[in-house]
Write a structure and sequence with these properties.
Layout (H helix, E strand, L loop, with lengths): L2 H18 L5 H6 L1 H9 L17 E4 L8 H8 L38 H15 L5 E6 L6 H12 L5 E7 L2 E2 L2 E2 H4 L5 H7 L3 E6 L3 H13 L6 E6 L22 H11 L1
Parallel strand pairs: 1-2, 2-3, 3-7, 6-7
Antiparallel strand pairs: 4-5
Helix pairs in contact: 1-3, 1-10, 3-9, 5-6
């Protein structure tokens, strides 16, 4: 499978979904595409589209739920639900809403208020360890939500209990809802901070899907008694003029004619 081609297809599909349902968060979803493509197409996650709650699955907690509309085409393409459903996002009667929840096959948790996915994932990892399971837990979080203190409670808990089945992937696009994260509460050198809390941490160019895939496999293969983190350096609103890396991209909706032109140019 060509992961670069798949990531481009997901980018186009995400634009199309936002064109039809402008209440979805576009910029946050564009920064995380290669992360999800690597996870779901790159052989990292053990999943079963025919039985999304299969006990033998790896768990993927999408903490930045609002920024995962790009997951809709991925899950449909993998067979979790029909591709036809992508035409009805945010329509009355559709289970594909502007903010995902577990009614969607393939989603594990409620993804409303930010900052709680890591705590949930840590609990899952702890429970799986206690059961003697070799299944892994992945948590995809935005760097902005790391401003929430609950994350750091989970980070300390995971290190103390040696949860090496837990993997945190930070979509580090450097922009929160109302501006750049460094202007609100700077994370400084996030890798060093996580390492100081007892985590193994690696960094990657988050839009190089092959590099993301490689590092995720590397992290998953390590079982040294430490939880693991991947800092993926990304661009919020990637590929959309006026949206990419704009300080208020979280709440900006591109004009429909701009999206139409991008879809026509890059299809």
């Amino acid at each position: 499978m060509n992961l670069k081609e798949k990531a481009h297809w997901v980018w186009l599909e995400t634009l199309g979904i936002h064109r039809r349902a402008p209440e979805t968060r576009l910029a946050s979803s564009l920064s995380s595409i290669e992360i999800f493509v690597a996870l779901y197409y790159g052989g990292v996650l053990r999943i079963n589209p025919n039985n999304p709650r299969d006990e033998n699955r790896d768990r993927c907690i999408i903490s930045k739920g609002h920024g995962s509309i790009c997951m809709y085409p991925i899950l449909a393409d993998l067979g979790f639900f029909p591709l036809e459903e992508l035409k009805h996002v945010c329509e009355s009667g559709s289970f594909l809403g502007g903010i995902p929840d577990p009614v969607i096959p393939g989603y594990e948790t409620v993804n409303g208020s930010l900052g709680h996915g890591l705590g949930v994932g840590t609990g899952m990892a702890f429970g799986l360890k206690r059961k003697g399971s070799d299944r892994s837990v992945f948590v995809v979080a935005g760097d902005g939500e790391l401003h929430e203190g609950a994350n750091w409670e989970a980070i300390m808990f995971a290190a103390q209990h040696k949860l090496d089945n837990l993997h945190l992937i930070v979509d580090q696009n450097n922009i929160s809802m109302l501006g750049y994260t460094d202007d609100i509460v700077s994370h400084g050198d996030l890798s060093s901070r996580l390492s100081a809390f007892g985590w193994d941490c690696l960094e990657v160019q988050g839009h190089d899907v092959l590099a993301v895939q490689s590092v995720l496999h590397q992290l998953k293969s390590v079982s040294g008694g430490k939880p693991k983190a991947l800092i993926a350096r990304t661009l919020k609103g990637r590929g959309v003029p006026g949206l990419e890396n704009a300080s208020l991209s979280h709440i900006i909706n591109p004009k429909p004619e701009l999206i139409d032109s991008l879809l026509e140019k890059f299809k």
